[in-house]
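User: I'm putting together a teaching handout on how sequence relates to shape, and I'd like one worked example. Could you take mRNA export factor GLE1 from Tachuris rubrigastra, show the sequence you're using, and then write out its predicted structure as tokens right after it?

Assistant: Happy to. First the sequence, then the structure tokens directly below it.
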Amino acid sequence: AGSKLREVFDKINNLLSGKAVQTEGQTVSVTQHPQGLDFVYYKLAEKFVKHGEGEVSFHRDSAFPIAVVLSGIWELHPRVGDIFLAHLHKKCPYAVPFYPARKEGTSTEEYQRMLGYEVHDSKVEEQDHFLKRMSGMIRLYAAIIQLRWPYGNKQGAHPHGLSYGWRWLAQMLNLEPLADVTAMLLLDFLEVCGSALVKQYSIQFWKTMFFIQKSYIPRIEAVTSAGQMGCLSRLKSFVQKCLQEKEIPLPKGILTPSFWRT
């Protein structure tokens, strides 16, 4: 509910503003320790990324309520946004976007970690689980860049708005595609913020969609094996449908004005 989200936002904002906050039967304040505020900035930013790789990866619609709170907090406390991006880029280099190259002397295990895989006791997580986590983080990022906290001060610019999404898309299309990963990331990104990007960039955006269909999808196909075609097929049909209908559908779960009356 919108009212519940406001409660969450106010509590986080009060904590970061140095006010005493009640939590789990305790009263806490960042002023209780000289590094209290820095610690809370760090843990809060880390927690938002964890929501992306956990909550959003399983419940895709949850990207929007989480993103709108982070967007508002970012506006009032820019340090949280900076640290959030640092955590996000470390966990999901594709959010930069960046495909880490293997350097000489890097062990396989270390390289898997650089690519975003979780490695425990020399066991690398399964591909499906890895893709799900990356998907959750990209969807959260794509939601953040288009959302603003509705009760904030609208005079200033969004602290990390759609221009960053446009840049992400352009940089992504300049990278050589990876099997599995690239198709999934593009589809997630376009599903979540394609409608916002088309409003802002109009003809340029449609040119990009045409480029994806004619030039980039064949490049993804060239590196994709028969068993990895699922996501690529979904990306193809999504792009084709959008170009045919000259419209990008609103993402499922977007917060409407009526949500804030709940």
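A couple of points you could highlight for students: The two ends are 5 Å apart (CA to CA). The chain has a mean pLDDT of 92.
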